[in-house]
């Protein structure tokens, strides 16, 4: 019952964007109040940055393993 990769590729950015819009509507000082790690706003800004970085390094590692195996 796992979701496929194309579904997750679309679903994860949409969920993080929804969290970002939720934080923007709930927090009264949205851009300035996001420095506290206990607020939801901090993590709604951190998630859209973390996911592409994770995907990049995951693919970089996979590519390194593929190149190492074929040489």
From TrEMBL:
GO cellular component entries: glycosylphosphatidylinositol-N-acetylglucosaminyltransferase (GPI-GnT) complex
Sequence intervals crossing the membrane: 42-65
A GO BP annotation: GPI anchor biosynthetic process
A molecular function (GO) term: glycosyltransferase activity
Keywords from the named record: Glycosyltransferase, Membrane, Signal, Transferase, Transmembrane, Transmembrane helix
Coiled coil: none
Signal peptide boundaries: 1-18
Protein name: Phosphatidylinositol N-acetylglucosaminyltransferase subunit Y
UniProt organism field: Neomonachus schauinslandi
Organism ancestry: Eukaryota, Metazoa, Chordata, Craniata, Vertebrata
